[in-house]
Amino acid sequence: MLGGLFYPRAVAIIGASNNPYSIGHIVLKNLTDYGYKGPIFPINPKAQHIRSFRCYKSVLDVPDEIDLVNISIKAELLPHVIKECGEKGVKFAIVHSAGFKEVGEEGIKREREMVELAHTYGMRIFGPNSQGIQNADPEVSVYANFTFVPMKPGNVSIVAQGGGMGEMLKLHLHNVGLGHRMYASYGNESDLTMPEILDYYGQDEGTRVIMMQTESFKDPAAFLEVASRITPKKPVLAIKAGRTREGSVAVSSHTGTLVDQAAMATAMYRKTGVVEFHDTHQMIKAAIAMSTQDPPKGNRIGMITNTGGPGIQAVDEAVESGLVLATWSEAGKKRLEESLYAEASLGNPVDVVATAGPDHYFAAMDTLLKEDGVDMLFVFFVTAPFVDLDAIAARIKEACESSAKPVVVVIETREIWYGLIDNLRKAGVPVYEFSEDGVRALAAMTRYAEYRDRKKEPPPELEVDRAAAEAIVKRYEGKDIYIPQVEAFELLSAYGVPIPKVVELNGDLKAAAKKVGFPCVLKVDSPEVIHKTDEGGVVLNIKDEKELAAAYDKMQSVFSGKKASYVLMEQKPAGEEIIIGATAAPGLGSLVMFGLGGIFVEVMKDVIVALAPLSKPEAREMIEGIKGYPVLEGIRGKEGADLDAIEDMLIRVSRLAADFPNITEMDLNPIFAYPKGTAPAAVDVRLKVK
């Protein structure tokens, strides 16, 4: 495990220096300033003493055993130093030095050889190009890092690929007086991996919340396995940098263009119950609340304010965040009426009015926290100078301590009353400056609870013709092409995905029309034609053989210069258009996408992505997760689509993608979804085999 990294018995600093602007000097200073409990050994062949410590020429000269070394020397000098560390029996080497894979092929080779050398001695490399680690546990108090944020014991642990982002997370926890537990900024991740660090945090009893920042996933499967074990016990909050696909090779399917790196990360987070953020500020605010309080048991929020405007802001944010405004019981309403001023508003929010005193605040909070229909509480407090502010803050604290339900407090004040905020924070009450921050923190806690408590079951067993599907896929393995439409439809049919009748045209239009019937649809089938409708490659509502012959002649003329074949299909009645797609994801298998279909997928990009294969709850979560879900559910008197049938189709496509990971792209767009009792139909498919 990682005990030697986070609880080292002794630390050596290779590259220690009397130069106050050197990394080695800062690491030594941080270890001493924050009271590291073990011996510290500066290593520098040219110095005798550094900061009152005796200096050694080599780790081999140190008389004690060493668990951890911090290395900040030129990359070219590392092989000799790593060899000496190995011979000394060092367990972990934090390599701050740059000049490895981030600089190109030579650096990649240097990095690989460094790791191979370390492994011959059973030593692990942290980094290179890394900040280092911290553990604020008073038992060890190790600051083996060259950064500046003060280290104070807390219960939030941080793992960050980017050092600047990691430092930002630490800094803002420090600014609200929370501190942190463990910290690791791992840089190039050449050896010791992010999932290993995450796993260690998950098993650490002193870590209540984990914040993570990533730029890429070296081992997605390991992350999935580790995160899935942690989130039932403690929240993991995540933010991913580099959420665009800029610079990558464009692909021609809708699924390929919509499923970018951000979508892949989102799919992993959702699968594992990790709460994702796109805003660093909001992730920190959520961590603050989760560090002191358990998540709510439901999504019903009660609100108390002493002024109107911020309460309205809070209501808007709550509704937009998926929270539900709680209502009070008759007994609750009566107690509020008896306890508050006559001018108070007793709805949600409860407006206790600006002249409310300590007992009014306590009565309102105590009443709502005792209501069965309230899962969490938001309190806004503007520090009016004509009331006893200290007493109000004390009573707010008292009410919070009397309930296990989460409470956030927003205080609008100036610097002369900042002591109120400090006192509440010291008591474990999350305090914010803006209404939106408080509500979003509660919403994040609710999301975590919903992920943690959601129904979990394995993907269902399906009756499919895998042999038939395998025969089709094998015909195109290694060709990296889009397979012909007819065979793509046959592949879907083998897995029970509803399709229209379809035949490839070989000149006998009459025989083809007899198989599919009228009205029918004529389509071009060519890898060179992506948007068939736009290029004249689709003719709808063909009513008889005469119209078919004319359409066929015209289409052949339009695509005469391209490698194209033609298919005739049964024309399905129009329905709600949806898209289901799949794409290969290295290290993950396959990802499945769902959203509104047709041209709307390009304009609205209202899609959701998940890992294949899907369970029934996961498929339903995808359907209900898109913004366009009300359209499928049925609005303005219009009958909704058969959601059970869509769910079944999603599951079947996901199983097909999981069973054949060499299907690198698959687009079913559009799919026509119909009211209850009528199976949906995939009326166009584009499928690529690697």
Structure description:
With 690 residues, this protein is α/β, with parallel strands linked by helices. 38% of the residues lie in helices and 21% in strands. Among the domains are: 1-130, NAD(P)-binding Rossmann-like Domain (Rossmann fold, 3-Layer(aba) Sandwich); 147-291, Succinyl-CoA synthetase domains (Rossmann fold, 3-Layer(aba) Sandwich), CATH 3.40.50; 294-453, Rossmann fold (3-Layer(aba) Sandwich). The strands form 6 sheets. Strands 9-8-11-10-12-13-14 form a 7-stranded mixed sheet, with helices on both faces. Helix 6 (194-203) packs parallel to helix 7, helix 7 runs parallel beside helix 9 and helix 14 (389-401) runs parallel beside helix 15. The longest helix is centred in the middle third of the chain and has 19 residues, at 435-453. It is flat.
Category from helices, strands and their pairing: alpha/beta
Give the CATH architecture of the domain at 294-453: 3-Layer(aba) Sandwich
Mean pLDDT: 94
**What are the segments in which pLDDT stays under 50 over at least 5 consecutive residues?**
247-257
**What's the count of strands?**
31
Specify the CATH homologous superfamily of the domain at 294-453: Succinyl-CoA synthetase domains
CATH class of the domain at 294-453: Alpha Beta
> What's the tally of helices?
24
Spatial strand arrangement across the major sheet: 9-8-11-10-12-13-14
Computed over alpha carbons, the radius of gyration is 31 Å
The end-to-end span amounts to 39 Å
